Every structure is written in C-alpha cells, then in structure tokens.
Amino acid sequence: MKQSLSANETKLKFVQSVHTFIMQVFEKEGFTQYQDCFKLEGSSIMCYLPENFFTEFSIPANTKIEMKFITKKS
Questions:
Q1: Residue boundaries of the structural domains of the chain
Q2: Tens-of-pLDDT digits for all 74 residues of the chain?
Q3: b/e per residue, 19-45, with b = 16+ CB within 10 A?
C-alpha cells in the first residue's frame, strides 16, 4: 500500500527528486565540481553560480538563482 502525501509533502519529495537528478547529471557528465553550488533550501533549490559556470559567458560574482516550486490545486 502506498503512503499518502499532503500537497506540501508532495512538493518537497518532487524538489528532492529534481535535486537528485541534477546531482546525477553532474556526476555522469563529469561536472562534480558544481554539485556544491546547488543546495536544497526548503521547497527551493538555490544555485550559487561561480563566475566560470558558463564557458562562453562571464557572469557577475556571487550570482544566486532560486528555483522555486509552488503547489497549486486544480
């Protein structure tokens, strides 16, 4: 029998699975140096991008991007 989750618990499980997927892709592609840049913070994944994250672009120092997930009921 499957365990029932609330909407918020479902969101947290989803965010955790997205984070796990990102870590697996970095591992598979040989970019493990970027794994520490992506941190789970509640229902968000915070991306602390280093200045050399993109090979073709320079970005501002200390750039932080939040991947925020929200739950909507239909």
A1: 7-68
A2: 889 999 889 999 999 999 999 999 999 999 999 999 999 998 899 999 988 888 899 999 889 999 998 888 77
A3: beebeeebeeeeeeebeebbeeeebeb
